[in-house]
TrEMBL record:
Source species of the chain: Stutzerimonas tarimensis
InterPro entries referenced in this protein's UniProt entry, alphabetically: Mopterin_synth/thiamin_S_b, RnfH, RnfH_sf
A Pfam cross-reference name: Ub-RnfH
Assigned protein family: Belongs to the UPF0125 (RnfH) family.
Protein's UniProt name: UPF0125 protein ACFOMF_11175
């Protein structure tokens, strides 16, 4: 079946169209797409993944035409001004 795998890499977004077997999981699709060779900074143990903007688990099964998305890790450094009070 045809699917796509996308990653919004900092230097350049990556979109890979590929064919996978029926019953393929999200993790298998990411591995088979070659994305991890293009973007070795991806850590699937720490980064969330989704299909069409909805979070899914790595063992979720794909359907024809699905778009697998690997999301950037979100990090935020709080300044002294950034605290939880409203004043």
């Amino acid at each position: 079946m045809k699917i796509s795998v996308v990653y919004a890499a900092a230097h350049q977004p990556v979109l890979l169209n590929c064919r996978v077997d029926d019953g393929c999981s999200v993790e298998q699709a990411i591995e088979q797409s070659g994305l991890l060779r293009y973007c070795p900074d991806i850590d699937l143990k720490k980064q969330k993944v989704g299909v069409y903007g909805k979070f899914v688990k790595l063992d979720s099964l794909l359907k024809e035409g699905d778009r697998v998305e690997v999301y950037q890790r979100i990090t935020r450094v709080l300044d002294d001004d950034d605290d939880d009070d409203d004043d």
